[in-house]
Structures are given as C-alpha cells and as structure tokens.
C-alpha cells in the first residue's frame, strides 16, 4: 500500500464496504454522495486496483476490496488505539511516575490521601515510590530519577525546582515517658525554654537541613543553644533514642502517629515560628500528564 494514502480514504472505503451503498455510506459519514464516490475512485487510483463492482442497486466488493477491508480495519483500529493512548498519557491516565517522600512526610495523612486520589484517578499509571531524606530527594529530582517529591524545607541551591507548599504543621516535643518534666503530671504542653538544660537528639543535618536549622534557630530565639548529644539518620531512630532515655527531641506533629512505648509527646509553647512545612517539589517547567495530574490532586486536597 502506498505510504501516502490518506487515512480518511480508508474510513470512507470501510463505510461504503459495510453499507454496500454509496448514498447510505454518505449519510453515515456526513458527506454528499458525489464527493464520496469521487474519493473512492481516488483510493482505487492510488492503489491501482478496482475495489468495488458498481451494481445497479449498490456497491459490491471485488476480491481486492475484500482483502483491503480486513487490513483497513486493522490499520484504523491501531491508529485509533495509538491516538487514544497518547491522549491518555497527556491526561496523566497512562505512563509512569516516580514519587519520593521523606520519612516524616510518609506518616502524614495528606501524603496518603494524595497517593490514593492519584491512584483512583489514574489506575493504569505505573507508580513507584521511594523514601529518603530531603537532600537525597532533591538530588534525585535534579537527576530525573524522581518526578515529584514530598519534602521538608531544603537548604542550599534549589534552582530549577519548584517547592510548592502544601501545608505547615506544628512541631512537638518528644520526651522519655519517665522524664522529670512529665513524670507524675498530666501535662499536654511544654515551653521550649524548659528544654534548655536537656540533651537533644536530632536527625542529622544532612538528612533534613531545613528542619535542623529551624529547630536550632527556635531554641536560640527562646534563649538557649541546644546541646545536641546524639544525631540519628532517621526520625524513627531519633524516637527510639528518646524512648531509651538518652534525651529529648523536637519533631513534626505527624511523627506523633508513631505510638512508641516510652515516649511522651507534648505540644510546644513559646515557639510560634517553630513549624514544619511540607512541600511538593518538582522540576520547573515539566508538566507531563501524570506529574500534572498528581499536582492537581495535591493542590485540590491542600485546599480542603
């Protein structure tokens, strides 16, 4: 078959073949009968064969026409499927997406809700997830190993990335359950400056530089410089050290969902600026279908 044949001619041919009559086929596809007859002759000329026997009351396929009909249907079905697939990719309904999140973000119900909403809207998209720290997630975005990431505040150069703030949550104090500041009391709050003489356990700065610096700055604003006695790679490790009685910690409120025996969580007072933002990070200018769809779902849920 000539590679220059207009697919429209094949559609006209199929209509005439299925209807067996030029007038009926013309009505079906919404054109006049004379132009349709002319287009069929154009197709026959392109192919160099006769596709129909013109009968007094209709059109009858020749042997060549019968052979073409099956192939024409297959060709157009493939074209239609390809077009539909491309459109679904553009709409975010097909393709792939790689999403990252920090350990603390993974515990926040907002992140769970976004993933569920995206999966419901695009069940055919291949979704992969990765948990890491903010610094590594930002680098993975730069290297195009991830498409989106839920991160805390990054420190350093974020050129080429968009940090879209989804929410801002409070920070809370985590103390050993038997600590003198909580033992025998039914307290729910503690002032940040009450922790001035306590050993601090913090997630090491390279893992989450934004929160690390925020905590240090808040302590200094409250009148003291915290004594950091231990550093851990992950927040869960930080809480384990608190449970072991090695010190106190300041954590995002979502981390209190970890019901760890031996840890007491208290709301902080006297530190109004001590907050933990959650950002949706992605490369600037990239609006591929699946990325755009997840951004839309995240923005929708953030506004609720």
Automatic annotation (TrEMBL):
Domain HTH lysR-type: 5-62
Keyword Iron carried by entry: no
This protein's UniProt keywords: DNA-binding, Transcription, Transcription regulation
InterPro entries: BudR_PBP2, LysR_HTH_N, LysR_subst-bd, WH-like_DNA-bd_sf, WH_DNA-bd_sf
Leader sequence segment: none
Alphabetical list of PANTHER family matching this protein: SMALL NEUTRAL PROTEASE REGULATORY PROTEIN (PTHR30346:SF30), TRANSCRIPTIONAL DUAL REGULATOR HCAR-RELATED (PTHR30346)
Family classification: Belongs to the LysR transcriptional regulatory family.
Protein's name in the database: LysR family transcriptional regulator
């Amino acid at each position: 078959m000539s590679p220059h044949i207009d697919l429209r001619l094949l559609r006209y041919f199929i209509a005439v073949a299925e209807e067996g009559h030029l007038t009926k086929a013309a009505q079906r596809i919404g054109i006049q009968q004379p132009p349709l007859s002319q287009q069929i002759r154009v197709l026959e000329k392109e192919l160099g064969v006769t596709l129909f026997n013109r009968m007094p009351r209709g059109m009858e396929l020749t042997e060549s026409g019968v052979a073409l009909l099956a192939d024409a249907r297959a060709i157009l079905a493939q074209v239609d499927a390809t077009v539909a697939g491309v459109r679904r990719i553009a709409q975010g309904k097909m393709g792939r997406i790689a999403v990252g999140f920090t350990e603390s973000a993974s515990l926040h119900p907002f992140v769970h809700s976004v993933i569920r909403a995206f999966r419901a809207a695009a069940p055919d998209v291949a979704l992969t997830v990765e948990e890491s720290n903010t610094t590594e997630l930002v680098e993975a975005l730069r290297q195009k190993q991830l498409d989106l990431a839920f991160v805390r505040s990054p420190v350093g150069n974020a050129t080429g990335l968009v940090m879209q703030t989804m929410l801002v949550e409070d920070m809370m104090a985590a103390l050993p359950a038997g600590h003198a500041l909580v033992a025998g009391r039914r307290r729910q709050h503690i002032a940040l400056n009450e922790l001035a003489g306590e050993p601090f356990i913090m997630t090491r700065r390279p893992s989450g530089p934004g929160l690390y610096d925020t905590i240090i700055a808040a302590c200094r604003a409250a009148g003291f410089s915290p004594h950091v006695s231990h550093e851990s790679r992950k927040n869960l490790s930080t809480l384990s050290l608190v449970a072991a009685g090695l010190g106190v910690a300041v954590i995002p409120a979502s981390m209190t969902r970890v019901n760890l025996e031996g840890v007491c969580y208290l709301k902080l007072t006297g530190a109004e600026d001590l907050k933990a933002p959650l950002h949706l990070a992605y490369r600037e200018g990239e609006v591929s279908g699946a990325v755009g769809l997840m951004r839309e779902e995240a923005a929708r849920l953030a506004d609720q």
